[in-house]
Amino acid sequence: MLDRAARPMVSLVDKYLPDPYIFVIILTLVSFGAAMAFEGHGPMAVIEMWGDGFWSLLTFSMQMLLVLVTGFMLASTPFVRGILNRFAALASTPGQAIILVTFVALIASWINWGFGLVVGALFAKALARQVRVHYPLLIASAYSGFIVWHGGLAGSIPLVIATEGHFSQDIIGVIGSGETIFAFFNLAIIGALFIVVPLVNRLMLPKEEDSVYVDPAVLNDEPDTSISIKRPADHLENSRVLAWLIGFSGLAFIFQYFMDGGGLNLNIVNFMFLFMAVILHQTPKRLLDSLHEAVKGGSGIVFSFRSTPVLWA
What is the pLDDT of residue 222? Predict the structure, then answer.
């Protein structure tokens, strides 16, 4: 029903949507212009403020990178992959596949946006191996769950302003997640999106003759979990005991943190995802292999956040 209406939009995005770094440049120039036009600063004064503030978001940038990296590492564990493969068996028609991948992606993105991005992609592949479905829409539906991320448990601004010592504390203070993430207005919007987004995606499903399919054989990318011992150091790198000792120590800290009345912030969310990944990957080597893959997708975050202007004009 909506597939015809969506086609011009898809064509427009394909032709004119640039790399995110282009938006960084444009917004930087807009900020420069606004500082000069509305605040009366000269060009060199604006450049000096931009340079002086360039590293003021260094902590925030690292936290954002870790949201993606820890979310990726947890989503790529054999445990999570197994759950996704079992859920994929629930869909038997293209329409069910679209609704199911959207719903799972929404849940995962609400928990953690880095987790949601990877879970959505992995689940879409698992469904495509089970059901013959229009693959472009399946992938788009998997990423449409991202729409709820900022109202979720890893929303950057709600968690930043809930973290003691954040960069705007002298202006707005520390605002707990009960007034943002768990506020009624936010939960109501999230609930509505959980209903509307899957239905909209389902309505965009084209007819069979207009659908694009993918060979399930090319989607078989299950990681190799076998253990190879070729040198003494391999025993340590593949040690479950080491992983579990450090992993369960992390979980013990998390338990005590919340027992002492601690609230959600970026640091504790990243901490939780990291140590759950440590445990579920079972060995240090599997964790590091996952980390290696995760950081490949983090370059955009590092560069974009560091290139964004910080103007205190």
Answer: 66
Joined tokens for residue 297: 């997708």
pLDDT tens per residue across span 136-152: 999 999 999 989 988 88
- Burial of residue 208 (CB within 10 Å: 0-12, 13-18, 19+) is exposed
Distance (Å, rounded) from C-alpha 287 to C-alpha 261? 30
pTM of the model: 0.77
User: Rounded to an integer, what distance in angstroms lies between the CA atom of residue 211 and that of residue 3?
Assistant: 10
Q: Please, how many CA atoms are within 13 Å of residue 229, restricted to the half-sphere of its CB? A: 7
Secondary structure (3-state) at 224: coil
Q: Is 40 left (phi over 0), alpha (psi -120 to 50) or beta?
A: left
- The whole-number pLDDT of residue 306 equals 55
CA 99 to the chain's CA centroid:
20
